[in-house]
Amino acid sequence: MKKRFMRSFAIIFLSPTLFLILFAFPKFSENAIAANIVNDKDKVTFLIARVIEAYGGKQNIRNVKTIYARGGINAIAFGEKGDYSYYLKRPGKLRVEIRYTHSSELRILDDGKGYYSIGGAPITRVGGIRYLAMVFQYRQIDLPYGLSGNLYQIRYEGKAALNGMMVEVLSLDDRKGPPMKIYIDMKKFFIRKVSGYFSVDNSNTTLSVEFADFRKIDGTVLPYKITNFAGGQKIAETVIAEYKLNGLDKT
Question: In the 8-state DSSP scheme, what is residue 20?
Answer without folding.
Answer: I
